[in-house]
TrEMBL record:
Composition skew (Polar residues), residue ranges: 445-459
Membrane topology: Multi-pass membrane protein
Protein name: G protein-activated inward rectifier potassium channel 1
Catalytic activity reported: K(+)(in) = K(+)(out)
Annotated source species: Furnarius figulus
Superkingdom to which the source organism belongs: Eukaryota
Gene3D superfamilies for the chain: 1.10.287.70, G protein-activated inward rectifier potassium channel 1
Primary localization: membrane
Family membership: Belongs to the inward rectifier-type potassium channel (TC 1.A.2.1) family. KCNJ3 subfamily.
Molecular function via GO: G-protein activated inward rectifier potassium channel activity
């Protein structure tokens, strides 16, 4: 333990979640009632089909699959019963032929040729059938050429026996070769853990392969089962949501040689986006894990399943490392397969962390609604009014026009990225308002120049001849009457 603390630090505490592991169990909330699971830890689904009615005939239409899906005790019972009934039936047929021909009374007459030699009662007829069916052939009982009905029955017996053997033996072979037992050598951790990995909140669990033979094309999938209600009012008791465990990056394709930790990154696309340590005490969900692959020895597809309820998800824990490098090989210590240890993890959900990061960030998003822009524009105008009261009387008369605030409000509402301060005012007005020591004459001249700029720009837009006549923006007293009238109409 001291070596572990030197390696991981004093703030980490090892917690074993297995029944036989060392350490104290992690602190949990008050125990609740027994949780009804949809999928057991061993992979069995707790689903029973009832009130099928006439749909039970579908099972008989697929009789082979029905027999394979039955439990072993029912398979053995059907296997023994089928052979027993078939043997008794065929033995009875041979006994009936011997009885109808009178072979039972003349069995010991050497001058009489029976249908089947040495068949004089039912046990002898049964032994003859077994010798024929099993191809034992002791040579004491045999069919003669004086019995055509016996030859026909022998052909029927051979065909029927081949069909029964193929069906029952094939069914038993398929059931014995099913990879369900192979799935028992695929391990899942008893608990899942939520902690930080690579700077992101991550849901993790561990899988392992106990055999040296590999699982070819192993792939893992996760489903989240949670009840919810749609906006239309429909209640879904077992709504299935997909948990991304690396489908987009190919991380769901496993090279399952040593134990692997499967990760689900909790982001805005995850169903656990709003899950926090506190909300886990009231949430009810179940994570179903499905591991599929091809058994290397048999080539058959194998599927292993397990599930984790909300009580089996540990917040702020991480799995203990189980792989160590020895002399020339890597050693896996399965005694620590289920063990976890606590790590510093924020108790907030990813959504809450993003909101806190956004509030603490000095950069504010530039996108603002139009109503906020207008309110800020009005506040800016109020600030301008306060500044205008400190300006000289001539400048107050200029800025006190009714159309000036409206134009400024219209200009401020066309952009969504303004910082509402004096820095957004025109440069000339900034210069005027930022120099409190100027005299009234200087401010008046600057204001007159600012107000005469549109006039000079309008004259600059005239043709060269008219600009010469207008004197480059001087007074219009020297213009002809017609040009003076045209110019006055243009400016008005």
């Amino acid at each position: 333990m001291s070596a572990l603390r030197r390696k991981l630090g004093d703030e980490y505490q090892v917690v074993s979640t297995s029944a036989s592991g060392a350490g104290l169990p992690p602190p949990r909330a008050a125990p609740r009632g027994k949780r009804q699971r949809f999928v057991d830890k061993n992979g069995r689904c707790n689903v029973q089909h009832g009130n099928l009615g006439g749909e039970t005939s579908r099972y008989l239409s697929d009789l082979f699959t029905t027999l394979v899906d039955l439990k072993w005790r029912w398979n053995l019972f059907i296997f023994i019963l089928t052979y027993t009934v078939a043997w008794l039936f065929m033995a009875s047929m041979w006994w009936v032929i011997a009885y109808m021909r009178g072979d039972l009374n003349k069995a010991h007459d050497d001058s009489y040729t029976p249908c089947v030699a040495n068949v004089y009662n039912f046990p002898s007829a049964f032994l003859f059938f077994i010798e024929t069916e099993a191809t034992i052939g002791y040579g004491y009982r045999y069919i003669t050429d004086k019995c055509p009905e016996g030859i026909i029955l022998f052909l029927f017996q051979s065909i029927l026996g081949s069909i029964v053997d193929a069906f029952l033996i094939g069914c038993m072979f398929i059931k014995m070769s099913q990879p369900k037992k192979r799935a028992e050598t695929l391990m899942f951790s008893e608990h899942a853990a939520i902690s930080m990995r690579d700077g992101k909140l991550t849901l993790m669990f561990r899988v392992g392969n106990l055999r040296n033979s590999h699982m070819v094309s192993a792939q893992i999938r996760c489903k989240l089962l949670k009840s919810r209600q749609t906006p239309e009012g429909e209640f879904l008791p077992l709504d299935q949501l997909e948990l991304d465990v690396g489908f987009s990056t190919g991380a769901d394709q496993l090279f399952l040689v040593s134990p692997l930790t499967i990760c689900h990154v909790i982001d805005s696309k995850s169903p656990f986006y709003e899950l926090s340590q506190r909300s886990m005490q009231t949430e009810q969900f179940e994570i179903v894990v499905i591991l599929e692959g091809i058994v290397e020895t048999t080539g058959m597809t194998c599927q292993a399943r397990t599930s984790y309820t909300e009580d089996e998800v540990l917040w702020g824990h991480r799995f203990f490392p189980v792989i160590s490098l020895e002399e020339g090989f890597f050693k896996v210590d399965y005694s620590q397969f289920h063990a976890t240890f606590e790590v510093p993890t924020p108790p907030y959900s990813v959504k809450e962390q993003e909101e806190m990061l956004l509030m603490s960030s000095p950069l504010i998003a530039p996108a603002v609604s139009n109503s906020k822009e207008r309110n800020s524009s009005v506040e800016c105008l109020d600030g301008l009014d306060e500044v205008g009261t400190k300006l000289p009387s001539k400048l107050q008369k200029i800025t006190g026009r009714e159309d000036f605030p409206k134009k400024l409000l219209r200009m401020s509402s066309t952009t969504s990225e303004k910082a509402y301060s004096m820095g957004d005012l025109p440069m000339k007005l900034q210069r005027i308002s930022s120099v409190p020591g100027n005299s009234e004459e200087k401010l008046g001249s600057k204001t007159t120049k600012m107000m005469s700029d549109p006039m000079s720009q309008s004259v600059a837009e005239l043709p060269p001849k008219l600009q010469k006549l207008s004197g480059g923006g001087r007074m219009e007293g020297n213009l002809p009457p017609k040009l003076r009238k045209m110019n006055s109409d243009r400016f008005t």
